[in-house]
UniProtKB/TrEMBL annotation:
TM helices/strands, residue ranges: none
Species the sequence originates in: Caulobacter radicis
Protein keywords: Signal
Gene3D superfamilies the record matches: Metalloenzyme, LuxS/M16 peptidase-like
GO molecular function, one term: metal ion binding
Domain of life: Bacteria
UniProt domain Peptidase M16 C-terminal: residue ranges: 212-386, 647-825
Protein name: Peptidase M16
N-terminal signal peptide: 1-22
SUPFAM superfamilies reported for this sequence: LuxS/MPP-like metallohydrolase
Domain Peptidase M16 N-terminal: 55-193, 495-623
Amino acid sequence: MKLFASAAVAALLLANPVLAQAAPKPSAKVTGQLAQLPSVDIPYTKFTLANGLTVIVHEDHKAPIVAVNVWYHVGSKNEPKGRTGFAHLFEHLMFNGSENFNDDWFKALEKLGATDMNGTTNEDRTNYFQNVPTAALDQVLWLESDRMGHLVGAIDKAKLDEQRGVVQNEKRQGQNQPYGQVWDVVTASTYDADHPYGHTVIGEMEDLDAASLDDVKDWFKKYYGPANAVLVLAGDITPAEAKAKAEKYFGDIPSGPPVMRQKAWVAKRTGSQRAEMQDRVPQSRIYKVWNIPQYGTAESDYLALLGDVLVSDKTSRLYQRLVYTDQIATNVGAGVSDSEIGSQFVVTLTVKPGGDVAAVEKAFDEEFQRLLRDGPTPEEVAKVRTLTLSNFVRGVERIGGFGGKSDILAESQVYLGSPDAYKTSLERVRGATAAQLQAAGKAWLTDGDFTLTVTPFPSYTTTAGADRKTMPEAGPTKAPAFVKLERATLSNGIKVILAERHETPQVRLGMLFDAGVAASAGDKAGLTSITTSMLTEGTKNRDGLTISRELAQLGAGINSGSGQDFTQVTLNTLTTTLDPALAIYADVLKNPAFKPEDLDRLKKQAIAGVQQAKQNPQAMSSRILPVLTYGPGSPYGQLTTEASLASISRDDLVRFQTTWLQPKDATLVVVGDTTMQALLPKLEAQLGGWTGAQSKTKAPVQAPPSKGAVYLIDKPGAQQSVIAAGNLLPPRDPNDQAAIDAFNTLFGGDFVSRLNMNLREDKHWSYGAFSGVRDARGSRLFLIRAPVQTDKTAESFTEARKELTDIIGPRPVTPAELAKAQNSLTLSMPGNWETGDAVADSIGELVNYGLPDSYFDEYPADVRAVSVESATAAAKKAIKPDELVWVIVGDRAVIEPKLKALKLDIKVIDADGKPAQ
């Protein structure tokens, strides 16, 4: 369930859907867990300036940062016919400078150390948010108020054309993904053209092309005044400070005209409508959509819980029937996409490769009708309530970002008129009954459905008030301090590292093993991932469904993942449910069953995932570049294929687990609401008796230099090309790591970096281009990636290659660039450890690379000590033009002629790196 209405329906439609839940009768122990869940209150102070600006303040002094969140009550539903996409276009324009700071927004913010900054638009609102060091708050408020009150004079035709091009590339990039055009069809099929939701947020190309300078200025004057906005300040600030600053920076801005408010328009449908479309996708997918009541209503909340009964973990009705038992689907999803004047209930069913679409829909209909006829079980209701409330608790650990406290307060105020309106939904969830969920389902989901079936397109072939003159100076910045770490060792040798965090009642445990992808070297590619995924599929004491059901009842979750050199199995749970959750976690680690039937099912899902990746241009480049740079024989160059996955046996899993996932060399990282004194006895009781062989050791991977080449992978009909390139650089060296970070930040690691500013802001050929270093204990991979419009593929290649050679040649690092990178790397650090997961990740970095506990405390000084000369030397260490391996994914028939005109020796390969005709 969603307790706040972010515009996530596209993610539900386009990404891999979530899972589900269902079960027998609740025990007193299970239902008691709900009573133990802490009630949630986000204290706030609210006031309104004389010009109508609503200001909400929440104090949270755990870190010296403030979340600044501005919501304008305008979205795509306010757009008249012929002006679609205006709200989203304006979101971009407002990042491009105002009258008194006529420069890129990110240039100002990144040098202040801002984090979690972005702007988004949905049907109902446009928001801008960032977390900033307390010392930089005045500067950010000056900037936010300048674009609210002093923007029109800074908008010119050049900026309009630039951002129009960026938005159009964003639209192309979205449509270029598998299932990327689904939402266009769903929107047009579920809403009439005259409904405010009858067009997509991103708009139509022709409307964007037709937008004039006067059009966009009139749009701004109508909707972006203080009386149509909410400002939330959450974090290291008091209400008195907030009021003084709000009046100083925003108080002189005229209120703006009255705005017409559209009330609820649910657009309930009758009858069943169907549509079919083909797309270049590896699997068929079924979408079912119903129009339902708007955000904040009891019906919407109950239907969201009903969606969780259908889909949220492995014990859910749809997952059990379609994925686990019948094995006719690889993914299922169900949930509510909430919006202000009407919402939608969306179900997605991804048919297994080559599977029967009709059989999947029939099985869904049987389960769906059974749920509507009989209602959910009491245990199902108890479980989804617990999951919803525990997820909400985890979200409010953060002050900013999506689902953080500032976001919740702003959303409640804008949509429901009060910052604490979210509590109504929380209490509704707490008291929800099976009868209420069933009644909502019968009222809204028995009629008016729209079904869209997407099937693979065949592989056809062809023959040939403040001072506006001067920005305020930033105050003194508080030096970031990493959390204090406590260490202990269990009787069996497991090392324990604890970082106490008592702000929210949750605990996160992560068992780190010295394994990773490299541990399966010389073995079957994909073995590491399959082995760790199988851990939660069943133990000698519990089957996979029991594990999933028990964890859901506790509001807990177990996940696993691997890097190049390490594997981690994590447990996230509430403080009140730590004991029973820890018992399940220990069982998963110590006693995996590796049942053949579970392995077969998981392999099918993994194979389907590979097939999906081979249809996604960005995934195609990410998948093949390491193979071509490290070489297929390198532990870091393994390519997971359908064949390698199919060959994995139960014996392989047992051998990997007994070789690598053993306690003697493991480190348990714990972050959260506990103490070492309370924790150690629990760990000793559950894990202390776990014994095993000494884990195998592996030497850091040393790979020879890559051989420069240009590879082309054909993706017929692609609306964008993806350009990627990489070469190897030596293992991590503490003497120049800060210089490598600084170089990468200014070259392609930030929004205002050279690569992105060239391809996105200057040329408008890409929605975003970046560079990065793929870390490892051995040889590392330096890489760049840029999705670009198809007709500019050759030109984008030329510009990217020029940027790579210029920074180590005629256009080396400049002092100004270095200073921006240093600010970006250091000033953002106070906000880097807001969540327990972020702290745990940083501790994992210390463990994985053998870094001292003082590493992060010393890092700012290391970065500040980087000189222009050392940053340039780092660039020369990272970029080896003669060793660069280029991978270009796109429509070969369109892009190859211009690429060949560059006199490139192009090798055409398929998605698995094999030579192609």
